[in-house]
Design a protein that fits this description.
- The complex is a heterodimer.
- By secondary structure, chain A is of the alpha/beta class.
- Chain A folds into 2 domains: about 300 residues, ABC transporter type 1, transmembrane domain (ABC transporter transmembrane region fold), CATH 1.20.1560; about 170 residues, P-loop containing nucleotide triphosphate hydrolases (Rossmann fold).
- Chain A is built from 18 helices and 15 strands.
- A 7-stranded mixed beta sheet of chain A has the order 8-11-12-4-13-14-15, sandwiched between helices. Chain A has a 4-stranded antiparallel beta sheet with strand order 3-2-5-6, covered by helices on one side. Chain A has a two-stranded parallel sheet with strand order 1-7.
- In chain A, strand 14 and strand 15 form a beta hairpin.
- Chain B folds into 2 domains: about 290 residues, Up-down Bundle (ABC transporter transmembrane region fold); about 150 residues, P-loop containing nucleotide triphosphate hydrolases (Rossmann fold).
- Chain B is built from 19 helices and 10 strands.
- Chain B has a 6-stranded mixed beta sheet with strand order 6-7-8-4-9-10, with helices on both faces.
- In chain B, helix 19 links the parallel strand 7 and strand 8.
- In chain B, about 40% of the residues are buried.
- Classes of the chains: A alpha/beta, B alpha/beta.
- At the A-B interface, helix 1, helix 2, helix 4, helix 6 and helix 8 of A face helix 1, helix 2, helix 3, helix 6 and helix 7 of B.
């Protein structure tokens, strides 16, 4: 895969060089040809140059098209390699578990890989081609008309300097742009966050006056920073053109009145005159390199440090940052003084020794979900969690094949219905169909039905049931359900309860919910806000520790 | 239903196009100014080409022979003078381009500001009713990527479109003056270029449609799997999903390449014509000078060189337009998103405004919610009961003026939402919302909502930042919100299931508190299971049809 990609990229590079050389050749040979035709008259052998001109034109057209195609093919290949590598490492990276839930983060990871993969197509090809062309140009001018070399050299050096300066400036400016963007996002997010209160705020009450200073963050500074970048490139181009004009002036001045019959004299003036077309435009490509360097530097891990919760970060680093896996059967579970997030007010202790349904009760945001995640090994926590009478100690990043956690968002992956259930595991079609019947989702259609983007969209109730269907399919010992009744109507709630009651006969079911339906058969209710444990088993109400 | 949706989508496209047009219209004059600068720069460049060809001719001539003739300069023109013309023309071309560039940047800034004013106006109008419809990420993208895409389109793309027409026309005029034969050839060939581009565009579209399903489904595969790594991990499907991702991206890549094979032809056509024109002109001019062919008028060297340099310029702006073409698609997407937002919040003209609520034939715009007669008297306590999804929230948003409806009250309305909203600032900021309120009043209020015990633990009192306070339970957060609401001293209080996300114990406590503190106020309270029915004087019910029915309790 790697070498294959490299080969494709190298081929694209070769084609770009051919394209660039053919373009330059065409310009120079054409102008030389008409100069020679007028100077030498009928003594010129005109057939050969005419053929060369047409050949160069054809090479240019063909190599241009091929370079585009091969270059993009290489780009897609390396993008694929990069993304799959990133995906494979992300799967084991604990600190990413929370991060990837924000679309902004996923978007950032997509762009970063894209910018890295685009290096060849956006920078290497054009630049290598142009630098080779420049080199050959200097050599051929030296060989053909050495007296003109000085002018070409001056412009070449000017170009290299301008280019280097632009890259340095570009790197600095990209940092500024990123900062501006971050500032805007923070301010804007805060403002949006307070939107339920806008109708109470005085500055919003008078709707008829368009205030000049809007209360909303503006992106004008961001645009400004981006424009500064564009302007820098534009000024670079101007600078290069000024050098070319100067060189052109000096050249014409030097030969004033000293007419020569040498048709080659036309070459260097032609180059200088059209410098913006063949060299100036290259300055725009520096953004390709700048993006690449930026993407490399701000590689996912580093970008995360700023945003991640400091505590979680430390914990993730002190313990092994990799996800490990266990497959031992689990029949008991105990929590001792566990607290899994800062919003949780009291540490929780509980012993569960047999199958049944247990419920964490509390308001939204009280820390119920974090508690479930901590048990699943998906969240750092304080206190002790262990399984099978303390014989297995749980820690962050330790996943058990016999524990299934069904998240609150009830995720649907882009894929077929079958894939959404099996997630790629080899499972018989009949089993899948059976589970679908159980959760009353068989009306969704064939197992090949596509769900998610570009396919069928599921309602909240359907998602919850799909979520549960997965849990049923894998027959785990412990099922953790996060808000399974959220956004469901009565009919769907009844269906969920039936399934949960069924599950709790054979395994431990732990539910986090602020809704507690009457018909749900519960072994224990734990109110995590008011430190009370209601136990249905002995009908008494006991005080929890801590 | 489907037909209805289609009509709506069609309307939205029209609205998006209208939006783009009106924005374009606003910057038209300024943009024409930029075009004038650019055209001026182009003419300067042509002048420079003419001077350049003449100078080269002089350089190559052995004597004042026919070689130094030109359509632009007579044979006895001074060499030095022409050199000055060359440098002057090139210099002015640079300066004019610089002006054009700066004007364009300024124009973009003002155009962006204008679009932002519109968006912010929509925010002010629709408030939370609008904001809650999309994620914060969506709004971020709208304000950064989408608005910027529109600005780029109405400035850069529009300018380039004009340039792609103006510069070839100017150039053709000059070429006609120099050599009518080349002029006629170009005149015949030029229309072929757009023709080819249209054919290729059609082909690309057709191919794209063929692979549409693949693009639609597999395009976001990486992002989708990445955001689901928790799920994949929980079900130990790491290996399987990595394999799938690889397979699918292979499929996606091969379909993409098939479409690109045709799409890239577009660029190649332009390359083809500009390259070929150069090659053919070179051969034509050379052979004409050598007197090998005698098509068209007799050429002199200087004119021939001029043609060689100038003719490829016919295609260069068109080529640049092709490079910017992606801006058009991006702007259309952006415009339809923005149009959707602006459409929702457009003010309709026939809103009946009145201080008191005694409305006949009330209707919430674009929703099913309506009432034959809505009536609220000062001091009433109204229980709003409705099955979930019947439109409680819509009704509340209409009453609090965040959503358009046939009637609007001029009273001050305060709305308490399901989930509490805690701001980033200090405790004081959270209570006062930047209004000047005395500490005494704040303490009294905290006492009233039973938060004094919590408050006493705060290290810096009212100036403690919220994130340094001990964590609040869900009920306490709602109590803080309630305090904030009461401090606003509104005429009408709307409570949209403030206990929906609370545990049973917290629900009871908050209900009791609300009944006490809002006893003397006008209240409409949506609630699944009220603490005491007797507290309410009236009951409103929303039925399946969306009709609000009012009766006394």
């Amino acid at each position: 895969m790697q070498t294959n990609t490299l080969k494709t990229n190298l081929l694209a590079l070769l084609l770009s060089v051919a394209y660039s050389l053919a373009a330059m050749g065409l310009l120079l040979v054409s102008s030389w040809f008409i100069a020679a035709a007028s100077v030498m008259g009928s003594s010129l052998n005109y057939m050969l140059p005419a053929v060369i001109i047409r050949a160069l034109a054809l090479i240019r057209i063909a190599s241009g098209y091929a370079a585009l195609l091969v270059g993009h093919s290489g780009f897609f290949k390396s993008l694929q390699t990069k993304r799959i590598a990133l995906f494979a490492t992300s799967l084991h990276n604990l600190s990413l578990l929370e991060q990837v839930k924000s679309s902004a983060q996923v978007e950032a990871m997509s762009t970063t890989t894209e910018q890295q993969a685009a290096l060849w197509i956006a920078w290497v090809n054009q630049n290598a081609a142009m630098f080779i062309t420049l080199l050959l140009l200097n050599v051929s001018v030296y060989l053909l008309i050495p007296s003109h070399l000085i002018y070409v050299l001056v412009v070449t050096i000017a170009f290299v300097l301008v280019y280097a300066l632009l890259i340095v400036f570009g790197l600095k400016q990209t940092v500024k742009i990123a900062k501006q963007k971050e500032r805007f996002v923070t301010e804007f997010d805060d403002k949006l966050h307070s939107s339920p209160l806008w109708h109470l705020q005085t500055e919003f009450l008078d709707k008829h006056i368009q205030q000049k200073n809007s209360q909303f963050a503006s992106t004008s500074k961001l645009l400004n920073a981006q424009q500064t970048q564009q302007k820098a490139i534009f000024y670079g181009q101007l600078c290069l053109q000024l050098f070319a004009i100067l060189a052109l002036y000096l050249l014409f001045k030097r030969y004033a009145g000293a007419a020569s019959q040498n048709a080659l004299f036309i070459l260097v003036p032609m180059l200088l005159l059209s410098i913006n077309d063949w060299l100036g435009k290259l300055l725009h490509s520096q953004s390709g390199l700048v993006d690449f360097i930026q993407a490399k530097q701000g590689d996912i891990e580093k970008a995360l440090v700023n945003t991640t919760d400091k505590k979680a970060q430390q914990q993730a680093q002190s313990s092994s940052p990799k996800i490990t896996r266990h497959s031992q059967a689990i029949y008991a579970l105990s929590l001792n003084n566990v607290s899994a997030c800062s919003a949780q007010r009291l540490p929780i202790s509980i012993e569960i020794n047999h199958a049944g349904c247990y419920l964490f009760e509390g308001s939204s945001g009280a820390g119920k979900s974090s508690l479930l995640k901590a048990i699943a090994g998906l969240q750092p926590f304080q206190g002790d969690i262990s399984f099978n009478q303390q014989s297995i100690v749980q820690h962050f990043g330790k996943l058990h094949e016999r524990i299934v956690y069904c998240g609150q968002s009830a995720p649907v992956v882009d894929g077929t219905l079958a894939e959404n259930l099996s997630l790629g595991h080899e499972i018989e079609q009949d089993t899948l169909q059976q589970v679908l019947n159980d959760v009353n989702l068989s009306y969704l259609g064939a197992l090949t039905q596509w769900l998610g983007s570009g396919g069928r969209q599921l309602s909240g109730g359907e998602r919850q049931r799909l979520n549960l269907a997965r849990a049923l399919l894998f027959k785990p010992d412990v099922v953790l359900l996060d808000e399974p009744f959220e956004a469901l109507d009565d009919h769907n709630i009844a269906l969920m309860i039936r399934l949960i009651n069924q599950l709790s006969k054979t395994g431990i079911v732990l539910i986090a919910s602020h809704i507690v339906p009457q018909t749900l058969m519960l072994n224990q209710r734990i109110d995590i806000e008011n430190d009370r444990v209601f136990s249905k088993e002995n009908g008494s109400e006991e005080k929890c520790y801590g | 239903m489907i037909k209805h949706n289609h009509a709506a989508t069609g309307d939205m496209e029209v609205a998006a196009t209208d939006l783009l047009h009106s924005q374009q219209h606003k910057v038209k004059n300024a943009l024409l100014g930029v075009l004038a600068f650019k055209s001026g720069a182009f003419l300067c460049q042509l002048t420079a080409f003419a001077a350049f060809s003449f100078l080269v001719a002089r350089l190559l001539a052995s004597d004042a022979s026919s070689l130094v003739m030109s359509h632009f300069f007579s044979a006895n023109t001074h060499y030095e003078w022409t050199l000055n013309v060359l440098v002057g023309a090139l210099g002015s071309s640079l300066i004019l381009n610089l002006f054009a560039h700066n004007r364009l940047m300024a124009l973009q800034a003002s155009s962006l500001a204008d679009l932002e004013v519109q968006l912010h106006g929509a925010f002010k109008q629709g408030q939370h009713a609008l904001v809650r419809q999309h994620s914060h990420f969506y709004w971020q993208q709208l304000s950064t990527e989408h608005l910027h895409a529109m600005v780029k389109f109405i400035s850069e793309f529009q300018l380039q479109k004009w340039l792609a027409v103006v510069t070839p026309l100017l150039l053709l005029g000059v070429i006609a003056y120099v050599n009518w034969f080349v002029f006629i050839i170009l005149l015949v060939c030029l229309p072929v270029v757009p023709l080819f581009m249209i054919i290729i565009g059609k082909g690309t579209k057709h191919l794209h449609n063929t692979y549409f399903v693949a693009f639609e489904r597999l395009g976001s595969m990486f992002a989708n799997r990445l955001s689901n790594i928790e799920l994949i991990n929980v079900f130990s499907a790491n290996k399987q999903q990595t394999q799938r991702l690889e397979q699918r991206s292979n499929t996606l890549n091969s379909s993409t390449m098939k479409v690109l094979q045709v799409a890239f032809l577009n660029q190649t056509v332009l390359d083809f014509f500009s390259t070929l024109s150069m090659a053919l002109i070179a051969v034509y001019v050379g052979f004409n000078l050598l007197e090998e062919i005698n098509l068209g008028p007799k050429l002199v060297f200087a004119d021939g060189l001029f043609l060689l340099i100038a003719v490829p310029m016919v295609f260069s702006e068109l080529k640049q337009l092709g490079n910017l073409y992606h801006q058009k698609a991006a702007a259309q997407v952006a415009a339809s998103e923005l149009a959707r937002v602006l459409c929702n919040s457009q003010k309709s003209t026939d809103i009946q405004q009145s201080p008191s609520i005694d409305w006949h034939d009330f209707q919430v715009v674009n929703t099913a919610v309506f009432a034959k007669h809505l009536f609220v008297e000062d001091g009433q306590h109204i229980w709003l009961s409705a099955p979930s999804g019947a439109g409680k929230t819509l009704l509340f948003e209409a009453l609090s003026k965040q959503r358009q409806a046939s009637h609007q009250t001029t009273q001050k309305v305060a709305l308490l939402t399901q989930s509490p909203c805690i701001l980033r600032g200090t405790v004081r900021d959270n209570l006062t919302l930047n209004r000047p309120i005395s500490d005494k009043a704040l303490f009294a209020m905290l006492e009233k909502v039973e938060l004094m015990a919590w408050y006493k633990n705060l290290k810096q009192g009212l100036n403690t930042p919220m994130d340094e306070c001990p964590p609040l339970s869900g009920g306490e957060k709602q109590r803080l919100s309630l305090a904030r609401l009461l401090l606003c001293d509104a005429d009408l209080y709307l409570l949209d299931e403030p206990t929906a996300f609370l545990s049973d114990a917290q629900h009871l406590r908050l209900c009791r508190l609300i009944e006490t503190v809002l006893k003397d106020k006008t209240v409409i309270w949506a609630c699944h299971k009220p603490q005491s029915q007797r507290w309410f004087s009236h009951i409103w019910h929303i039925n399946e049809l969306g009709e609000v029915l009012c009766h006394a309790n």
